[in-house]
Structure formats: structure tokens, C-alpha cells
Amino acid sequence: MSELIQILLAQPAFEPVIRNGKPYRQLDFTEANGDLLMRDLSETADFTAYVFGELLSNGTCNGIGGYGEDRVIYRHRKHFTADSEKPRSIHLGVDIWAEAGEPIHAPLNGRVHSFAFNDHYGDYGPTIILAHELAGTTFFTLYGHLSLPSLDGLYEGKDILAGEHFAAIGPYPENGDWPPHLHFQVIRDMGTRRGDFPGVCHADDWAYYRNLCPDPGLILRVAD
């Protein structure tokens, strides 16, 4: 068990990232969900109707899940299949599926490490990365698929307090052209990257990224 995992486990609680009071429903985007294999979800409007209309009972629930999930939905996105020899399909974060405009709150004190508008089909869209320190250990949280106004007034080094509303879930197509959701990821070391970090990897690289990006559920602690 890594030092960061031990530190996160030792924390009694974190601030909730989403506060709309809706129950959570676990969503499955792997081959185990046979529904996916019979649908063409390349059109974002159809994908959104499927998620919010069918899976989330017309938006009465939040959706959650995805860490370590081998997802078939990426087959429709060239952003993940451009490398034909190593197509990426293993999800490195947790997704929270909620309506566009839903406020996002910081789970703990941090500061803005970097941010960017990753403006490609299937990418993160507006993205914010926060740096945190707990028990003398620095780590990072990434928030992807945000609204463009979430980037207004930001600057590197800006303090973000635990519980502060600092961003919002974005609509498509500005959010990377996905059904509205938050991609939340924990990262031990950003290296030289700024405003971006892989959120999906090839199966051969899962062991490496699993060590680098521990389960965000250690912070979210959401019961489904």
C-alpha cells in the first residue's frame, strides 16, 4: 500500500464534491453491460439520452463509477484509438454523471496547479488540476469536462478552500463532447504536465498508472 493511500485512508472525512442530494447509482460501461454492445453512442445527444433518461431514471439519480473499468464506449472515440497498436480503454478516474451546471466543490484545501481547455473531441474540455498537501505529502486532483466559465479568473497558485464551489460540470460539446459528467482523478506526481494528464490507459500500462493514480473513491466515499 502506497504512502498516499495510507494518508487518504487515515483522513476521517473529505468535503463532498457534488452536493445536490440525489442518490448515486453505479454505472457500468464495460462489455458486461450488454446494452452498450447493441447501441451506437457516437452521437453525444443519443449517449446523453441513454445515460440520463434510462440509466439515471430521467436525472433523478447521480451516476458514479469507472475506476479501473475497461470501457467499450471509447471504441467510438478516435482520441483513444488513434494508436491502433495500443488503444486506450482503462479508466483512471471516477466519473460522476450529473446535469450540466452542477456545482463542483473542493474536497480538501488546495491551490490551482494548472488548467487548460483541452478542446478535442473525446478529450477533457475545460480542465482544472489542484495541488494538495496532507501529512507532508503533495498530490493532485484533476477535474475534467467542466464548463468554460469554470476557467474564468483562475491563475496558478490560487488558493481553493475545502468545500469551496470552484467549478461546474460543463455541457457538450464544450466539455469534450460527452454527456455531462465530472471526471475526477487522483494523481501522485504530475511530472512536467500542466493542465492535462492521461485519464485512460492501455491495459498493458494499468499497473503503472494504478500506482500513479490511486482510487478516487478514497476521497469521494460515495455509497451507491
From TrEMBL:
Record bears the keyword Acyltransferase: no
Keywords: Signal
InterPro entries attached to this UniProt entry: Cell_wall_metabolism_enzyme, Dup_hybrid_motif, M23ase_b-sheet_dom
Highest rank taxon of the organism: Bacteria
CDD domains: M23_peptidase
Domain M23ase beta-sheet core: 90-188
Coiled-coil annotated spans: none
Family matches, as Pfam families: Peptidase_M23
Keyword hit for Signal: yes
Signal peptide positions (record): none
Residues passing through the membrane, by range: none
Record's protein name: M23ase beta-sheet core domain-containing protein
